[in-house]
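User: I'm putting together notes for a lab meeting next week and I want to include a structural view of one of the chains we've been expressing. I don't have a solved structure, so I'd like a prediction I can at least talk through. The sequence is below, exactly as it appears in our construct file.
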Amino acid sequence: MSDAVEPTNAATPAQSFFERLGVQQVILPIGPGIPLGFESISSPELGIGGVYGSWGTSYDNQALRGFIERRLGESMKDEEMMNLAELGFLRRHHLPDLSEAEHLELELEVGARLLREAARVNGWGPSEVQGVLIGMSCPVADDYVVQIARRAGIPDDALKVSVHKACDGSMGALHLALNPALAAPGQVNIADTLRGKKVLVGGIEGLSRFTSRARDKNALQLFGNGAGVIGVIPGQTMKFLVGKSHEAFDIEGLLEVRMFYPYSGPKQAGEPLVEVSREAPNHVRVAGLMHEPEDGSPVVMAGLMGMVKLFVRNGVQVVADVMREYQALMSKLGTPDKPIAVGIVHHANYKINQLKAKQLGKEGIRFPMPWLLSEFGNVSAASNMIAFLRQLPKIRPGDHVLFDGFGAGTYYDVMAVALGT
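Assistant: Thanks for the context. Below is the predicted structure for the 421-residue chain, given as structure tokens.
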């Protein structure tokens, strides 16, 4: 990782994702008609493919101000507007006002279409899929994963895993699918269950719905809708090498997030923050405790420096720990110089990733960490999956990739994997 990650060029025209070559677009007949755009990407060499996209109107940074003012019903001051281009974001996708029933139908249809397309890109029929693991910060329904899998034509006996660890959700899901050491005694070993099977893993985030009742002006500027789903065969097309899952409660409330999912309540000191429950014979829920806003708001942010404080210190340490394990493993295997080809890092914002790269560089840890999501804003658990799919055409069989997920709560999942059969 170099001391500076690959930046977004603020002078580049803010092209909409929907205008990108290769993106397919449909209008879903919900409310006034909601645009859905998606791009499918496949690497036959690696045996991995997937789909990513977004839904709603695409707002550039200039137009975003008017949208937020309409949503809040008040004007924003110039000093309240963030320099979003410097943070790596040129656009994000938002929805008009919809009813709860319309939001539910919209996200069920988006999720089902993504699952079907991700299976198709991998050459699988929906009936062949044996596992679906989806990370999401604010599910529109408690059984969202079960519902979209059924609507997509995936068998009822396929294992479904709902992962609620904020922006770390999709990486928490991928880690569970690959690393058998994560299973606690008495719990289903998801990685052992899914090894050698056809599995869909992703993040689906309807954050425009989530923030529609928020008053936090930073959150309204940063977050938007996004989703990404990949198909893997654990142990074959993607092989786990080393990894670490870490949790550290956000005592100060630097990023307060309401839990819109089942959770039993606050934990005693020393108890795990993550609850794993069997919701049905083939539905597992992984839910992380959040520091919730006292006023019941969906999200409250302490500001950009609060985000840096929240994620960089622990985030650097977790990546450093995994890299030490990786280097030890490579030495044991007789390939001490085998590099990490690329790091796929959650796109919280460009400055956070830049600072993480700088701090890791001080410890002698360097690998490419491209910035890849300028048209989306922060899309939480979807960002790692979108970034991976955009990087996929450049990855070669045998390459080792580091996935770095982190999110509110706070939760971290970092893993190194080998790609290709």
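A couple of points you could mention at the meeting. Residues 7-13 have pLDDT under 50 and may be disordered. The chain has one domain: 17-419.

User: Perfect, that's what I needed.
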